[in-house]
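Box 3.1 A note on notation
Throughout this textbook, protein chains are presented in two layers. The first layer is the amino acid sequence; the second is a token string describing backbone geometry. Keep the layers aligned when reading.
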Amino acid sequence: MEWKQEFKILGWIVVVFLFAFFLPLESPRFREAIIAMFDLSKWYAQEHVILCLLPAFFIAGVISVFVSQGAVMKYFGAKAKKWVAYTVASVSGTILAVCSCTILPLFSSIHKRGAGLGPAIAFLYSGPAINILAIILTARILGFEMGVARIIGAVVFAVVIGSVMSIIYRKEEKAKRDEQMNFPDMPEKRPMWQTAFHFFILVLILVFANWGKPGEGVTEGAWYWLWANKWYITSFFAILLVLSLIYILKLNRLYVLLAAVATGVAAFLSSSPLVPVIVGITGLSIITLLDKNDPDNKEWTLSTWDFTKQIMPLLAIGVLVAGFLLGSTHDDTAMAGMIPNEWVASLVGGNSVFSNLFASVVGAFMYFATLTEVPILQGLMSAGMGKGPALALLLAGPSLSLPNMLVIRGVIGTQKTAVYILLVVILATVTGLIYGRFF
């Protein structure tokens, strides 16, 4: 057995040596792909991790600790009526406004708490796909019919994919259902409205802190007003969070107020959200970890940390690989990866089976932050992309990405992840074909 281990070490040495020996540093394409990889990673860290993922981890922690297993199973488990479970799961994205990566800790949390595979998968898909902000932006920039097709497709996809997954793995689901039927109804530790209040305050902070800027030239209207005042609105909900920490979680009032003041001062003095977010999270973590009144408060932070450890490394790897292969396209930046953007645009013209399938596959592997898929598609459509492939990419892209796939695999396994990806790609391809034929 020892010689096998030595050969394994030798193999890795050879692989690393050959990689270094044949590194194509003289290739402009390779150099730009390397820069794009780190550019996407930097942008992701600055614009997405701080305001999207960190709040999402704490929201997942709330679900994992404060929302009882019985409450999750009431809406998503075996005791729930199917129409209730799938309705709640398929429209959940309208209030979350998350991307394919931000939804992951929430999905992992409800799956861990006993949600059925079908409703959990419907929730996983719908979270990023039915984002109401993205739907509005799609209708305004890409056309009203595209916005309507996207919202109908997203809801239908969530229900169909979840139902098919539930049928395919019905034996496992039956075993889980039988187990849950014997699960006693546990009394809630606190009134459900208090837990819901605490949960939705965090969700609203997530939504408004990430409220997207309206299109060029838009200087009025409700969307513009919300964007222009989003930090005031976020601050209002942050104050409600402070009250929730004091009166619902019963944390030490003096410590919470000191942490809140420190966060406010940091926000006032800093031009970047990084400093106040770090100050706020550090203060909240210390207060909850040292709390002696309720062990759930400490468990909230520990659970949040568990989700962070599980998801962040895989996301980092996925973002690096996505940037290297597909480039970095955000804001006014357009850096090509090893796969040229021109190839993508030329392969998705018209409305053939291939163009729709290719758009679905590229969308599934490419990473889209919340709302960024619309301007990217606008550029591709101006370069000749067909309407059918555009919708196929819209339905496959926001809900899937390479980082997303890596994390899902860690939660539900390789086989279920492969089936989920295949279902999304097939449905997106067929829907794109139908849409492209009529529009």
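The chain has one domain: 38-251+291-438. Residues 38-251+291-438 form one domain.
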